[in-house]
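just leaving the lab so this will be short. below you get a single protein, a line of residues and a line of whole numbers that encode the local backbone shape. id like you to explain what the token line says about the fold, in plain words if possible. thanks a lot i owe you, the record is right below:

…
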Amino acid sequence: MFAKPNPGRTTAAAEGDVVVLLIGMRINHFWGVHHWLPVFVAMPRMLRELGRDPDRGLLGYTLLTGSPRTYYVVQYWESKEKLYAYAAAPDMFHRKAWAMINRKEKKSRQHVGLWHESYVVPEGSYESIYADMPAYGLAAATGVLPVEKRGRRAADRFAHRASGERTPEASGS
């Protein structure tokens, strides 16, 4: 929470594709606490569960609020396959939480809204820069590099490819 800023300009050390999951809830009726509170507390429990088992594929996350009604998490995953595997794993809390929500669906849905969006962002389609910031977002999930390692301009950072991979431009295609 009170991490020391990295001096100067840095960028995320991400390599390859980046999988981003945005997931959240909206409290539709504040007075229906017994309907939305279990949903509200489920996400931190899932994040703790994933934090104890890095092989599940969650690289990092950021908790955010959009308003007093809206809460969401930006998550960074190793792959969409690992994200799917966690969501479907019968021994993980996500499956139990989703079953609980579906059992109470008709009553709960009027009190709490749920949403998620998933993106697979191919290498060369993302870039980042952080100025005098602690590791945040993608950099917190994948590590921090001096910006010069990927390029001072956004266009240079977009053009970055993981070492050992050949781009069409480099291969003459």
Q: What stands out?
A: The two ends are 47 Å apart (CA to CA). The helical segments are 33-51, 80-88, 93-103, 105-108, 138-142, 154-159, 168-171. Residues 33-51 form the longest helix (19 residues). The beta strands are 9-12, 18-27, 58-65, 70-77, 112-121, 130-131, 144-146.
